[in-house]
Design a protein that fits this description.
Distance between the termini: 11 Å
Number of helices: 9
CATH superfamily: Metal-dependent hydrolases
Shape: globular
Oligomer: single chain
Radius of gyration: 17 Å
Strand content: 15-25%
Order of helices and strands: EHEHEHEHEHEHEHEHH
Number of strands: 8
Number of domains: 1
Length: 258
């Protein structure tokens, strides 16, 4: 059994066949799916989906691309949504200096504010970090220094081994997805065997980042076993062991039923 720790099944990419996608995920052995929000509206959709599917849970948050939208009114509504019983995390939140769709100071302020919300409600956080490693880590170090011990998950991890070790030092988890299977991937496959399996989870980030041989197509949770198989090959461990450990880690991280 597997846990897809990051899937955007609420996106309109799945409007035509969402039920079929969920059915295929179950048939592929995906036990739980975490569906994070990217803004207020997608957070609402994530909760609505989780209300109708017993194996899907929601996270709520404002993505750094949408950081400029985090007004006081939006923050108050986000705080209300975060208390919904189907919400298991705040996310995805963080910094994105690759596309810079919101000014960096605005991204940083939104990130810090949502970390305060996670601490207030005792929820894990799902981190988006693209080309912003130093600032993301610095903000999280400040948050930890304030006494916040709630779990941190780096989604779609794109750093090097040094960054990974900093994440682990903060008590964080690292999500592995489709890019580890890409035929031209070098850094992530080389780094993976050096990471502790007790801190790894798996994800699809669907509809994005479909694993080989589906790269460039729409991703979906049913492709998660391809990620696990590649991890098993790289770590020289049985796929069943990778599946068991990553599932246990995800259930512990998000307080999911075992």
């Amino acid at each position: 059994m597997l846990v897809d720790t990051h899937a955007h099944l609420d996106f309109d990419d799945f409007d035509a066949d969402r039920e079929e996608v969920i059915r295929r995920a179950r048939e592929a052995g995906v036990r739980y799916i975490i569906n994070p929000g990217a803004d207020l509206e997608s957070s609402r959709r994530a909760i609505a989906l989780a209300e109708t599917q017993p194996d899907i849970f929601a996270a709520v948050g404002v993505h750094p691309h949408e950081a400029s939208s985090l007004t006081d009114d939006v923050w108050q509504e986000l705080r209300r949504l975060a208390q919904h019983p189907r919400v298991v995390a705040i996310g995805e939140i963080g910094l994105d200096y690759y596309r810079d769709l919101s000014p960096r100071p605005v991204q940083q302020a939104a990130f810090r504010r949502q970390l305060v919300l996670a601490a207030e409600l005792g929820l894990p956080v799902i981190i988006h970090d693209r080309d912003a490693h130093e600032d993301v880590l610095a903000i999280l170090e400040d948050w930890r220094a304030e006494g916040n011990s709630f779990p941190i998950l780096f989604h779609a991890f794109s750093g090097d081994l040094g960054i990974a070790r900093c994440v682990l030092k903060l008590g964080g988890y690292i999500a592995i997805g489709g890019p580890v299977t890409f035929t031209n991937a070098r850094r992530l496959p080389a780094m993976l065997p050096q990471l502790p399996l007790e801190r790894l989870v798996v994800e699809t980030d669907c509809p994005y980042l479909a694993p080989h041989p589906y790269r460039g197509q729409r991703n979906e949770p049913a492709y998660l076993p391809l990620v696990v198989a590649k991890m098993a090959e790289l770590c020289q461990r049985p796929a069943e062991e990778i599946a068991r450990l990553t599932t246990e880690n995800a259930c512990r991280l998000f307080h999911l039923p075992a």
